[in-house]
Amino acid sequence: MSTGCGRFRVRAAPRHVDGRGDGAQSGCMMPTRLIAALVCLPALAATLPAAQAAPQSTRPGRPTAEAKPAPKPPSLDDLFARLRASEDPAEAKGIARLIERHMAGSGSPTVDLLTDRARQAVTAHDFPLAAELMDRVTALEPNWSEGWNRRATVFWLLTDKDDALADLRRALVLEPRHFEAWAAMGRIYESLDDKARALAAFRRAKALYPQMEKVGEAINRLTPEVDGRDL
User: Fold this and answer.
1) What is the reported pLDDT for 51?
2) Closest to 96 measured CA to CA, from 81, 78, 77, 83
């Protein structure tokens, strides 16, 4: 027979069969029971802290503050509104970068990969390869405004101004608030000596991004020539 306590087991002393009475048997059992009790004490003591700690969790205390939900990132509409209202050039530049980052993703990993390869080709001055890659981008994602804007940039680098203007128009149909596309259109028209259209494009860019660098200078430069000088 064995006495169990948790994982500890103590084997009881065997009964004597020499004819002794119950008193002798009791005398043999007492040490066994005492040993079993002593063995059980550490295991029992180990359970006391956990047993005592459990009721503490139910004691009333100060209510814990509820975790506040993470703020939602501003929408594209919010960013454009802030960009128009900003009077600080540094702040406006930061907002413009957020807008550009927002518009930079096509939603397609394949298209994003092709676009990045086109960017690398431009960096390496391999403009024909960049144009070929951007052809695939616009074919796969024809409704992505930034894809047309980036292909227009490649055409500009290839001095293909007509195709660059065509792509910019397509980009602006998809996203009329694309201030970079308006500014690029203004530069191309000015290079073609179409000052009236250049001024109109620069003004559209400035209306969207009042603090945009060099756009104000272009407007000041072209306004007297297009609208005439004040008398």
Assistant:
1) 42
2) 83
Those residues whose C-beta lies under 8 Å from the C-beta of residue 184, and which sit 6 or more positions away, are 149, 152, 153, 156, 164, 168
Percent of the chain with pLDDT over 70: 70
Single pTM value for the model: 0.69
Burial class (CB in 10 A: 0-12, 13-18, 19+), 197: middle
The domains of the chain are located at 2-44, 74-104+176-231, 106-158
Assess contact for 222 and 195: CB atoms under 8 A: yes
Cα separation, 213 vs 194, whole angstroms: 21
Domain spanning 74-104+176-231 has what CATH number?
A: 1.25.40
Q: Residue 221: what residue type?
A: R
Per-residue pLDDT of 171-197, as tens digits, reads 999 999 999 999 999 999 999 999 999
CB 161 within 8 A of CB 191: yes
